[in-house]
Structure prediction request, 432 residues.
Amino acid sequence: MNPLLPIERSTDLRMAMNLAKAYLKSHNINFKLTPYGEHPKSYICTLSSRGVFISMGAGKGAHDLQSKVSSIFEAIEHSALHHDYFKDRMILKNPSAIAKSHWYEDLPFSLLLDNQSTIMCLPYSEVEYQDEIHLPVALVNPSYIEAEEGYPERRCFTPEHRQGDTFDYSYLLKYSTTNGISAGTSADECIIHSVSEIIERYTLAEFIIYFVALNNHEHYKRIQPSSLPDDLSALYACCSKELHGSELYLIDITSKRWKLPTYLVYLDHPEPSFTTFSSGASLNNNYAIERALTEMMQRRAHPHSIFSSNDETMIKAKLAQWYEKEYGSMMNDKIMCEFNITTIGHRIPEIGCYNFAPNSVPDRTLHEYRQRLVRTVKMAGGEIYYAPLINEDHIKVYTCFIYPFEPAFILSSGRIVSLTRANLDLIKNISL
Prediction:
């Protein structure tokens, strides 16, 4: 892979960094890059203006420059979740008229159907035909309802910003997700990354349902690290060296439905609270694995990074505290605990070699690559919509949405956002 022009990018890394810096300077925004970990380093980028914190992003990459670019663009992406980027397009709608009629067959939308209040929405366009729909702002921005613990550090949407929205969000438990938001230097780049991320999450949802909950291993294969190409094998070795645990597993979890190459990296450990996982998806198999591995490297900023401490008592106490926060309510529920991905260590599938067959006719342009990705999703029955949050000449942030809405992956961290009817029926069947 070209170290300067990674796949799925419009410009080389040096140009992307310069464009990001120019954008921040034009908006009087300062940035600070903080490295962490060994080689290849990961980075945290913090944005501020006149001493006031704006946002933060963590970056991943197979080398330092890629990690720096990743972190600064993620920080810009997170900054776009602020009210200032939504205010001119937000519109109040009746919950029963915000999407296509057949969507209300799914549980999240059917819950909206019977509510006669008004809900704040954002217009989305269909990715090819530009048909317009409206989706709740809370669907793409959790800070619209309430500030998450520790993120964002300041409330982005005040009561004045939400004026006229009379919808009772407790009715949906918590109807929000930030998946499918991406920053880049072009519309193609943003849509490719947003759509790939959503399908990655949907695929992880399938893995949690079929492998974790139903204990069905038939369609999953663990990859032998020594069978990887040299660059990915070296990256795997870096992960294994720095992220301590019993073993680091690489699993092909590609969905038979979505058919987008997707890989799970699973850090196993006898102590459940020490386990963690990451994933990556791309039309390019090699890049999907690279994203999964570098995502695991990025998690060095996660509580697991305290493995570097010599205080074993402190390590166990901190990780136990984190595990209780993330999974405590889930583990206390006799049904939902069946979906806990941190319990799969003894069920890792049989090992196999990595076989990568490159496409015989590669895409000539990034736009062709985007079109092929859109076709892949459409063939699986997915409907893709997008809305620009930042849409300047060289810096863009897009939010994408794919119907059907399949957020079952949230079960992996014990935080149920919402479920489709199919997943609700599955949970009921497990309880019988």
User: Anything to note?
Assistant: The mean pLDDT is 83. The longest strand covers residues 383-391. The longest helix spans residues 187-213. The two ends are 50 Å apart (CA to CA).
